[in-house]
Amino acid sequence: MSEPVIRMENIVKTYYLGKPNELEILHGINLTVNKGEFTAIMGASGSGKSTLLNVVSTIDRVSAGEIYVEDNNIAEMKETQLSAFRRDKLGFIFQEYNLLDTLTVGENITLPLNLKGVSLSKTKQALEVISKELGVYDQLDKFPYELSGGQRQRVACARAIITSPAIVLADEPTGALDSKNSRILMQTFELMNKSLNSTILVVTHDAVVGSYADRVLFLKDGNIWSEVNRGDRDRKTMYREILSVMAALGGDADVR
Ligand code: ADP
Ligand code: MG
Which of 48, 81, 190, 197 is deepest in the core (most CB within 10 A)? Predict the structure, then answer.
C-alpha cells in the first residue's frame, strides 16, 4: 500500500512581482502521496492550497525543490514532455466541470482516450466499465445541459479516470455545487478510491469534503501545519476532528 505516486521534496514557490519584490508562497513543503490514498489539502484562503496543486498538476513550476510523479521528475521536464505527461498520468476535475456542450456524455467521457488514439473497442469497453461504476451509464447519450450539476461532476470524474491516471487532482471540486450535490460528488470520489483504487489529491476549504479523505493536511501560510489521519474512524468523527483543527488553525479556514 505504501508505493509513492507523488513525492514532493522541499517545494518552494516564489512569485516575482518585478525587482526587487518577491513573495515566497510555499516555504519548503514535503509531502508524499501513496498509491490508492485519498488525501485532502485544507487551509484558510490564501494559505497556498491552489499554488501547491498547480505545481503538482504542472500548470505552474516550482522555484526550488523536486516533485516526482511515479519516477518522473516533473521539474526537469520540457514543455513538450509535460503535455504528454499531463495527458497520460494526470486526471483533472475542475470546479466548472469543463464538459463540452456539443458532445454527448459518452463522447465527453471518452475524449481523453480518443486524443490518445486508443482503439474503438477498447474505448467502448472502458466507457462501459467506468460509466456503470459511477452510475452515469443511463446518461451516455444525453448532452451535458440535460444533467444536474451533480451528474455533470460525475461525468467529469468518469472522464478524469478513464485513462487510469496515476493520480486524480481536484481544486475545490464542490465549489459550484449545493450541499446535496457536493455529497454526491464526494461519494463518487469515495467510489473511485475504494472500487477503482484511484489515488486522489483534492484541495478544499470544506470540512465535509475533507471528512471523506483518508488524511487531511492543513496548510498555514505556506507550510504544512498539521495532519489528521482517518485510521479506523468513521466520517462523522473525522469531520469533528477536522473542525477542531480548523478552529485551532484560526483565520477564515472555512472560506475559500
Ligand atoms: P488558496 O488556494 O489557499 O486560497 P493560493 O494558493 O491561491 O491560496 O494563494 C496563496 C497566496 O499566493 C495568496 O496570498 C495569493 O495572493 C498569492 N498568489 C497566488 N498567485 C499569485 C501570482 N500569480 N502572483 C502573486 N501572488 C500570487
Ligand atoms: Mg484556491
Answer: 48
Angle between helical axes of 149-161 and 105-116 (0-180°, round to 10): 20
Q: Mapping DSSP to helix (H, G, I), strand (E, B) and coil, where does residue 190 land?
A: helix
Strand 223-229 relative to strand 215-220: parallel, antiparallel, unpaired? antiparallel
3-state helix, strand, coil in the chain (%, to 5): 40, 25, 35
How does residue 256 score in pLDDT terms, banded at 50, 70 and 90? very low
Best mutation site among 50, 171, 219 for ligand 1, i.e. most ligand atoms within 8 A of its Cβ? 50
Predicted confidence (pLDDT) at residue 97 exceeds the cutoff of 80: no
Distance of CA 12 to the CA centre of its chain: 20
* Pocket lining: 54 vs ligand 1, CB cutoff 6 Å: no
pLDDT of residue 75: 86
Collect all residues with Cβ–Cβ distance below 8 Å to 102 and sequence separation of at least 6: 143
User: By the 8 A CB rule, do 205 and 50 touch?
Assistant: no
Please report how many Cα atoms fall inside a 13 Å half-sphere around the Cα of residue 177, on the Cβ side. 26
Tens-place pLDDT, residues 136-181: 999 999 999 999 888 898 999 999 999 999 999 999 999 888 888 8
* C-alpha to C-alpha distance for 189 and 202, rounded to whole angstroms: 10
Query: For residue 39, what are the β-bridge partners?
Result: 201, 215
Predicted confidence band at 98 (pLDDT cuts at 50, 70, 90)?
confident
State whether the beta carbon of 81 lies less than 6 angstroms from ligand 1: no
Q: Given the CA of residue 44, which atom of ligand 1 is nearest to it? A: 3
pLDDT band at 104 (very low <50, low <70, confident <90, very high): very high
- The full length of the chain comes to 256
